[in-house]
Write a structure and sequence with these properties.
heterotrimer; A alpha+beta; B alpha+beta; C alpha+beta; A: alpha+beta; Aldehyde Oxidoreductase, domain 4; Aldehyde Oxidoreductase, domain 3; 7-stranded mixed β-sheet; 5-stranded mixed β-sheet; 20 helices; 28 strands; 24% strand; globular; C: alpha+beta; Ubiquitin-like (UB roll); DNA polymerase, domain 1; 2 domains; 6 helices; elongated; binds flavin-adenine dinucleotide; binds FE2/S2 (inorganic) cluster
Chain lengths: 775, 285, 157
């Protein structure tokens, strides 16, 4: 074979923009993948947690003696066994509690030989509580003399945020129109199909191996250690395949240290796995928010100011939820030029559930409000001043090179293109006018069309001092590549993207790139999979590592073939002449020969990619992302005005993706992201009564199913981001962020009613329509 | 969870019914209600678990001398696909749970579970069906027939005795003039527990509606017949005015409550909407 | 513990003889006793379809079925759809169309999709949606799932 190939020429082709299959898909499709939920270790015990089931109480006494006596029970622990162990964003949480502050509070835990025995043992634990006056609303939490939830925060005020820019009084003066509305965004939750699970195992040296669904394995060690009283260096994190995450696992939650404590004390591996009801009650939610939004505009359609006062129910503990203003205060005015901005955000402790990070973090809430204000202005300006609704948005749309008041530098901005592309593809303006006219006519079914847009960080978010990712790349004698990356895979498809990028650079088939990224003892540091950052950051890292490896190979080949390295390239498993693709040698042969050259070598490179963004600092105002991206969604709905049912028939999406890398994975993220927004807009809602979840099941918490999905018309706008890998930007959150207000605007177009309090359930819509008819 | 001491899977109806006579038996059909209810601790097993899915002759739809008979083990999927099932029953089957549940869920189970939201019950009320209850009396099987309109006494409660097996549902095969429609709430086609369901049927001939029967689900402690609505509609031509009146009458017939799935306002509202919608369907038939 | 019963049934083409507590679900039998972890738990109450398997040629939620009722029946799980590591065309189609993300819902989804096509080889896209409404997927938004099934049906577009 090698003689034949000597005459071969290999053309330069590119994988970028093609459809790459997910490498782990076959094993998943045949049922062979062992998820963490499926894992069993030798000698493993099953842990189960006793939750308080009440919302605010002193724990007077706990009697575990009966539980301890049950055959098969190895250990029962309470807060008394775990003093001084802290966790959470402001360290206001603990693995086990000595006081109850919310329904889910972990009061005791059991390790037993089976799940059934552990469950039985929980029933035998006798806890005496003394109920305390509860706080279920922000108002009650702020009252003088309100019950104190967390002793360190006697006024119940947890995190607060502030940003002001420009002269508000002057801006108000200049405004011909001022909108002033309150939006209330509800509780929703991730509903990962694989329920929460952790398996903890200590070795004889006191080193913990934790099998975890975490999305941020490296900082996870730092957060988990104080909850165990051990050194972060003594933690190894292994990430088996996981059934979804979407932000739910971006923090340490109590069940993880509890599993570890049980393992530490029993000397046996311990697994804690939630059932679906536990999952609903004990998982973080999306941060609910009451957003008082004011927007000013001139009669020429120029925005003058935006002010937001955001109150957040913190719940009983602080995870990522109440930090969402970090993003809200940027996106409150992010993509339409607003010269004057005033943002206030305050979180208040209550005895309710607490929120974590969730796909679209903060921006799902904010855009639900801002995109409706834009629509309200567009309507008014069209009516009173004959301004075209797209023209109005284009007038205010930011452009490449602009810097927002929050210091986001919009290097490549394609908002205008997103707007025109989506509007044209959907025939937006004509339909808008047509449906507006039809609204007044008789008839049960009404159509509506609605547009929404937003901005999101698309090149990571430097919330820590570094937003980097490490990569180690090595090649073997058969030209197989192993990439050890810090980036985590939670189903989103970084495995395919890294294989694609590395294959692109090294001229090998994607199947020959093997990814290792599930063991913190092997992988180099990375911030975690969140903030739409992984393709951008880890993709850049993988590309840089591959380029280094390529250089090394070409240098060796250059010596051997006596051609300058610049004139060589790697294609199709060969070293070739760059200009005409003439084969010089086989890549695997070259790699083997590298051991035998005068200075023996092996291809083994590393890289740490740090994006050129600025750390947020204390005020969270900086150019915190290496790229920003925009998206426009146009939703078309059919409303049954009698039953209130809203059917989303079609969504046209235009998104600046920088550059398409894996087309199939990109589409998949757009479609899946949209489904989250759809559920948030129409059907998903955690119903709480006095701090207790009333619908902890899929029966009454309604996720979108296949018939709910609209037809999608997806347009990728390629703005070619200078810093992104091959020009790509991060993409995964915008689809979730933009669709809900597009639907709300479409429902308005159909019915003449604004819905400021999602979800737009049939009952809510029917009631509003009925009430409107009464007056 | 309660412990089961004995498991039986009889092959014949008489064996099944005989087994019931000694008491302490839980009947298992498709298990789609029983299993989750036991898991959630909402009910517990009796000492004997009797799987009736192996009993011959309890499955299938037959027609004979103007009567349609559906065996208790007939699954909702089978009903959905059967030409012998009246359209209104197939509509209810089509909006029932999911394909997988329909494949397991039996008609008998749906009736005996006695949920006010039981979707197959509603059309059976419209068809004025009866249930056949079999028990073991003095060495022989005895079967009584009860109209389904009298069968339910409360949520999960029926007039069926513990020693009785519901073996079949029977109703007069609808004549050529019969028209019936079923409607249930929810934006999803299925996988929704009804917050309201309405069924309407009768003979629609020469522009007038006769032998009208109206049924409501999930609006009271049991599935129920809308007697006032029926009386109001009987013999009427379905003019816009009559339909509107019927919708109001339907609202008076039902006594819905608030729960997390819907408020009583919305349920009452939907009853009128669906009644109107179905009567319009009847006109357009 | 509840009384046990002896079962003889066919599982993915092979005979199984086992004793189980009569109130054990098929899902638990498969996962805990028979080490077939392809079939997933995600709700345990019939709402999500992750546990879908075929019994006597029709699909059911294995979390709702008592294993005792398997006696004499024929069961196919995701592990039995293809042949070892060789994918069934439906599985291949899911992979090729990018329908698999976290993959947790996929065993149930694929079994159900395969069943639907067997039932009706001319399935329309609307019928696919209806037939899959008992299978929840949180990742994909279903579009690629429908594409994968459509490719098998040959009814794209
Ligand atoms: C996800 C999900 C969705 C659902 N959606 C719907 C829906 O849309 N509409 C709806 O109406 N229902 C729905 N159900 C409820 C359920 O599927 C039905 O009620 C079903 O018809 C019950 O039948 P089964 O054979 O499974 O009953 P089983 O669970 O076997 O039995 C139910 C009860 O009836 C008793 N029983 C069964 N057969 C007999 C008999 N022949 N004689 C005497 N007693 C008997 C049993 O002892 C038990 O108490 C849903 C359930 C689930 C899990
Ligand atoms: S686990 Fe069986 S349907 Fe969800
Ligand atoms: S692929 Fe993740 S739930 Fe379907």
């Amino acid at each position: 074979m090698s003689e034949q190939v000597a005459f071969q020429h290999i053309e330069k082709t590119s994988l970028i923009g093609t459809r790459i299959k997910k490498p782990d898909a076959p094993a998943k499709a045949i049922g062979k993948t062992r998820y963490i939920n499926d894992m069993v270790l030798p000698q493993m015990l099953y842990g189960k947690i006793l939750h308080a089931g009440r919302t605010h109480a002193e724990i007077v006494s706990i009697d575990t003696s009966e539980a301890e006596k049950l055959p098969g029970v190895h250990l029962v622990i309470t807060a008394q066994d775990t003093p001084d162990l802290k966790l959470g964003f402001v360290k206001d949480n603990a693995p086990l509690k000595d006081k109850v502050r919310c329904e889910r509070d972990e009061v005791a835990a059991v390790a037993a030989e089976s799940e059934a025995i552990a469950a039985e043992a929980l029933k035998l634990i006798k806890v005496t509580y003394k109920d305390l006056p509860p706080v279920y609303t922000i108002e009650d939490g702020l009252k003088d003399g309100a019950p104190v939830i967390q002793d360190r925060f006697p006024d119940n005020k947890s995190l607060s945020f502030k940003f002001t820019h420009g002269d508000m009084a002057a801006a108000e003066q200049k405004s011909d129109i001022i909108l002033d509305d309150v939006f209330n965004v509800h509780y929703v939750t991730h509903c990962c199909m694989g329920t929460s699970c952790a398996i903890a195992d200590f070795d004889h040296n006191g080193k913990l191996t934790i099998y975890s669904q975490t999305q941020y394995p490296y900082n996870y060690k730092m957060d988990l250690a104080p909850a165990l009283g051990i050194d972060p260096g003594d933690i190894r994190v292994i990430q088996p395949p996981t059934g979804g995450s979407f932000g739910a696992k971006l923090d340490v939650y109590p069940f993880e240290p509890v599993a570890a404590i049980l393992a530490q004390k029993t000397g046996r591996p311990v697994k804690i796995l939630f059932d679906r009801e536990e999952e609903f009650i004990n998982s973080p939610t999306r941060q609910p928010a009451r957003m008082h939004l004011r927007t000013g505009c001139t009669s020429d359609g120029i925005l003058t100011f935006r002010a937001a006062d955001v109150m957040m129910d913190n719940g009983a503990y602080t995870s990522w939820g109440p930090t969402v203003p970090v993003i809200m205060m940027r996106t409150v005015s992010g993509h339409y030029r607003v010269p004057v901005v005033d943002f206030k955000g305050q979180a208040v402790y209550t005895n309710n559930a607490y929120a974590g990070s969730f796909r679209g973090y903060g921006n799902v809430q904010m855009t639900y409000a801002t995109a409706q204000h834009m629509d309200m202005l567009a309507e008014k300006l069209a009516k009173d001043h004959n301004l075209d609704p797209i023209e109005f948005r284009l007038k205010n749309a930011q452009k490449s090179g602009e810097v927002t008041p929050q210091k986001s530098f919009l290097r490549e901005c394609a908002l205008a293109e997103c707007l025109t592309t989506a509007a044209e593809a959907s025939d937006y303006v004509n339909k808008l006018n047509k449906y507006t006219a039809e609204r007044a006519q008789e008839g049960r079914y009404k159509r509506g069309i609605g547009l929404a847009s937003s901005i999101h960080n698309a090149g990571g978010a430097k919330i820590h001092k570094s937003d980097g990712c490490g990569t180690i790349l090595k090649m073997d004698d058969y030209a197989r590549v192993t990439v050890i990356t810090g980036a985590s895979e939670i189903g989103q498809g970084i495995d395919a993207v890294i294989a694609q990028i590395v294959a692109e650079e090294l001229g090998v088939p994607t199947e020959h790139v093997n990814l290792v990224n599930n063991d913190s003892d092997l992988g180099p540091w990375d911030v975690g999979v969140h903030a739409s950052r992984t393709t951008f950051i880890a993709g850049n890292g993988a590309r840089r590592a591959a380029i280094k490896a390529k250089k090394q190979i070409l240098a060796a080949a250059s010596k051997q073939a006596n051609v300058s390295a610049d004139e060589l390239d790697l294609r199709g498993g060969f070293v070739v002449q760059d200009k005409d693709g003439a084969v010089v040698t086989k890549l695997d042969k070259m790699l083997r020969q590298m051991h035998f050259q005068p200075e023996p070598d092996v291809v083994m490179v590393s890289d740490y990619y740090e994006p050129n963004s600025e750390p947020e600092g204390r005020d969270h105002i900086s150019d915190h992302s290496a790229a920003y991206s925009h998206a426009v969604h146009i939703a078309e709905v059919l409303v049954d005005t009698y039953t209130g049912e809203v059917k989303v028939e079609k969504v046209t999406m235009a998104q600046d993706v920088g550059r398409v890398i894996n087309r199939m994975g990109l589409e998949a993220q757009m479609e899946g992201g949209l489904a989250f927004g759809l559920g948030f807009a129409l059907s998903e809602e955690m119903i709480f009564e006095e701090g207790r979840l009333k619908n902890p099941s899929f029966r009454d918490y309604k996720l979108p199913t296949a018939p709910d999905m609209p037809d999608l018309d997806i347009h990728f706008i390629e703005s070619d981001c200078a810093e992104g890998p091959y020009g790509a930007k991060g993409i995964a959150e915008l689809p979730t962020i933009v669709v809900a207000p597009a639907i709300a605007n479409a429902v308005y177009n159909a019915t003449g009613i604004r819905f400021f309090n999602p979800p737009m359930t049939p009952e809510k819509v029917a009631r509003a329509i009925w009430e409107k008819k009464q007056v | 969870m309660s412990e089961i001491e004995k498991y039986i899977a009889p092959d014949t109806v008489s064996d099944a019914v005989k087994a019931l006579s000694s008491g302490g038996v839980t009947i298992l059909a498709g298990g789609t209600d029983l299993t989750p209810q036991v898991d959630a601790g909402r009910r517990s097993h009796a000492p004997t678990l009797m799987n009736i899915r192996r009993v011959d002759d309890l499955s299938g739809i037959t027609q004979n001398k103007g009567e349609t008979r559906i065996g208790c083990l007939t699954t909702v999927s089978e009903i959905k696909q059967s030409d012998l099932a009246p359209a209104i029953l197939r509509q209810a089957a089509d909006h029932f749970a999911s394909e997988q549940i329909r494949n397991a869920a039996t008609l008998g189970g749906n009736i005996c579970n006695a949920s006010p939201a039981g979707d197959m019950i509603n059309p059976l009320l419209v068809l004025d069906a009866s249930v056949e209850l079999a028990s073991w009396k003095e060495g022989a099987m005895e079967v009584r027939r009860e109209p389904i309109s009298r069968f339910f006494t409360g949520p999960g409660k029926t007039i069926k005795h513990d020693n009785e097996l519901l073996i079949a549902v029977v109703f007069d095969t609808p004549g050529p003039d019969f028209v019936g429609y079923f409607r249930k709430s929810g934006p999803r086609p299925a996988l929704e527990i009804s917050t309201v369901s309405v069924g309407i049927g009768g003979d629609y001939k020469d522009g007038a509606f006769h032998n009208v029967r109206v049924a409501f689900g999930a609006v009271g402690p049991t599935p129920l017949r809308g007697k006032a609505t029926e009386a109001m509609l009987e013999g009427q031509a379905l003019t816009a005015e009559v339909i509107d009146k019927a919708a109001r009458a339907a609202q008076d017939d039902a006594t819905p409550i608030d729960d997390i799935r819907a408020t009583s306002w919305y349920r009452t509202h939907l009853i009128a909407v669906f009644t109107e919608e179905l009567l319009n369907n009847v006109c357009q038939n | 513990m509840s009384v046990k019963t002896e079962l003889n049934f066919t599982l993915n083409g092979r005979p199984v003889n086992i004793e189980v507590p009569v109130d054990m679900t098929v899902l638990n039998l498969l996962r805990e006793n028979l080490d077939l972890k392809g079939t997933k738990y995600a709700c345990g109450e019939g709402e999500c379809g992750a546990c879908t398997i075929e019994v006597d040629g029709t699909t059911i939620n294995s979390c709702l079925m008592y294993a005792a009722d398997l006696n004499g029946r024929t069961v196919m799980t995701i592990e039995g759809l293809g042949a070892g590591n060789k994918m069934h065309p439906m599985q291949q189609s899911f992979v090729d169309h990018g329908a698999v993300q976290c993959g947790f819902c996929m065993p149930g989804m694929i079994i159900q999709a395969n069943y639907l096509v067997k039932q009706n080889p001319d399935l329309t896209r609307e019928e696919m949606k209806r037939g899959l409404e008992g299978n929840i997927c949180r990742c994909t938004g279903y579009t690629k799932v429908l594409d994968a099934v459509a490719a098998i049906v040959g009814a794209e577009g």
